[in-house]
Amino acid sequence: MVARRACRTLGHVQTEDPPTEGPPPRAGARHVARSVLTGLGRSFPGSDFALWAAGATFFGLIGMVPAVMVSLWVAGVLTDPQAVVDRVDTAATGLPPGHGTPTALHTLATTAVGMSWPQALVAVFPASLYGEGLRRAFRQLSPAPAEGFTGWRGRLGLLPLIAVAPGLVLALLAGAPLVAPLYAAGGGSLVLGIVIAFHVVFVLVSVALVMLYRFVAPGRLGVRALLLAGFGTGSVMSGFLQGFLLFLAIPVEWSLPFGGLPIFGAVTALVLWLYLLHLIVLVGYRLAVVLDGGDERG
Question: Do the beta carbons of residue 294 and residue 225 sit within 8 Å?
Fold first, then answer.
């Protein structure tokens, strides 16, 4: 038996073709992408992924508005409160006018920059709840060992992002005077505005995602995995947000399924899109885990 196996092995070595230089770069890139997507699909746990996204959405409903208000308030403190409101109004001119979106954004910005120090500090607490919801969802997709104080770890992990969020907001508002008129002009100008807005939002959202995957998610992932997953997911989310603007432009009353009650229609539509966003965020985190080899680093 041993001799037979040795003969087979020797014959295999003698008849083996000479090594080639490998597939072309494009074929290799396709192979890598296919392998990553296959691994991503196989690596998901068998429990309810949609439920985790719904849970993160619930915490997002509690924490996202206070987080945005704190960011706008700090941006107003660093620059000028009225200038922040004016930039928000300028950005709103490029949005579809339906569904009361410009009015809602103006009210949000005016209220945010008008907060006092105690009000801003109090708003940080509900804003941090968003970190708790995300960490609980990330834990379902992470091979990291069990931990205590999951909620508090998530809340504290969100604080670095809250700290840099005013800078991200100011960077986004800085492009409003350029992009908003392009959106309002339509035609070729609209296409140019979409291209510019996509890239600006892509960079800012990607930075935020990298910080979420680094500080809010459990465990420690490699830098390469964080950057690839963060910026890859950021590109998807940037395009998805452009789709949300298209959704706002559709002349359909959101209140139709609710007997004409506008508040229920608006809340339901926004929650639906927020839920879809969290699906993307969670898939992006799982992609980071797969790219990192599925092993935690401490």
Answer: no
User: What does the CA dihedral 163, 164, 168, 174 come to, rounded to 10 degrees?
Assistant: 80
Domain span holding position 117: 49-291
193 within 8 A of 94, measured Cβ to Cβ: yes
- 292: exposed, middle or buried (C-beta count within 10 Å: 0-12, 13-18, 19+)? buried
Digit-coded pLDDT (tens) for 117-155: 999 999 999 999 999 999 999 998 888 777 888 899 999
Q: What is the pLDDT of residue 43?
A: 56
| Number of domains making up the chain | 1
Global pTM value: 0.81
Among candidate residues 105, 106, 98, 100, the one with its CA nearest the CA of residue 249:
98
Residue 38 forms part of a structural domain: no
